[in-house]
Design the sequence.
């Protein structure tokens, strides 16, 4: 079964099954038949997957249960040929999904591998946190990575997508006890010993959108994660630049020839009076590398996380920057 499936993102191959963790991870295949069943389980039961047929997202949201179950996701009264994809919508903290099999009465084939690959390192914005919550209440139940700026950009370029992202994460401090320098090189994000093999292949473009949570948490010196990570000091410009360049150097060590776009936004880290864009630009200048580029997103999300429409605007901005600078 594994040989007939095409995966995007970091997945854990376990014999005849596969583990899915990261937002944006997808499984695709071509099918000629009259029905499609997926055999799935999830260790927490809160994972969600968008269901895409021939490039069109369906209203069905696939929600694996803790108990292994076979879910019928499509059927027809006649034999039809389609391309199917399931795409993880939400954070890895919602559960690890195991796909045991794809069942049909027809012919199952791999989809062609894509020629380009974009890897994103980010926080809730890259995940697409609450982007489908039209009430502005920032409800994480309405998270859909398929409509996040990361996935939209990959779709535009017909590129493979990898999202190394977690809502609430930062480079120096997070809203929980994990920071991106500890997460970026994992295969299974929940396992400290599970390491990704960076030698498998090289992405054509890297996009880093971090520091929003660092900015917020620097205002809460009594936060337990702040006390653990930062201590009693007040982070200044040099502290921020040093830690940002340290993280970039870790990525460059893994992918020495890949172009990197360091972007910020579209939340208050890019509001008009914010010094953070200057910090990132100075960090890039100090590194003196022609492969690192800076993109400041517009300040769009002023009251909550960005909406689907804002994610589309971010994606448009990123696409134009990539094309203008011939980065992909």
Sequence:
């Amino acid at each position: 079964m594994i040989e007939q499936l095409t995966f995007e993102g970091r997945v854990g191959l376990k014999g005849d099954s596969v583990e899915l963790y990261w937002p944006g991870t997808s499984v695709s295949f071509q099918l000629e038949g009259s029905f499609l069943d997926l055999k799935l389980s999830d260790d927490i039961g809160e994972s969600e997957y968008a269901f895409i047929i021939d490039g069109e997202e369906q209203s069905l949201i696939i929600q694996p249960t803790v108990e292994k179950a076979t879910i019928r996701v499509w059927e027809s009264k006649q034999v039809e040929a389609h391309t199917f994809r399931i795409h993880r919508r939400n954070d890895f903290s919602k559960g690890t999904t195991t796909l045991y099999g794809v069942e049909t009465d027809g012919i199952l084939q791999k989809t062609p591998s894509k020629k380009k690959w974009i890897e994103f390192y980010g926080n809730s914005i890259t995940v697409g946190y609450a982007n489908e919550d039209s009430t502005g209440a920032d409800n994480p139940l309405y998270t859909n990575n398929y409509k996040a700026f990361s996935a939209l950009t990959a779709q535009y370029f017909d590129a493979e997508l990898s999202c190394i992202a977690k809502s609430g994460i930062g480079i120096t401090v997070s809203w929980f006890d994990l920071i991106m320098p500890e997460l970026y090189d994992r295969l299974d994000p929940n396992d400290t010993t599970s390491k990704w093999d960076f030698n498998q292949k090289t992405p054509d473009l890297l996009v880093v959108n971090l520091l929003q949570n660092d900015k917020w948490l620097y205002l809460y010196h009594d936060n337990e994660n702040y006390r653990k990570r930062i201590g009693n000091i007040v982070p200044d410009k040099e502290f921020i630049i040093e830690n940002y360049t340290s993280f970039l150097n870790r990525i460059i060590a893994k992918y020495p020839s890949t172009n990197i776009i360091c972007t910020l936004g579209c939340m208050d880290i890019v509001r008009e009076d914010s010094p953070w864009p200057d910090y990132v630009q100075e960090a890039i200048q100090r590194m003196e590398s022609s492969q690192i580029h800076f993109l400041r997103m517009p300040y769009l999300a002023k009251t909550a996380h960005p909406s689907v429409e804002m994610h589309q605007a971010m994606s448009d901005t990123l696409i134009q920057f990539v094309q203008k600078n011939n980065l992909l």
About this structure: The longest strand covers residues 69-88.
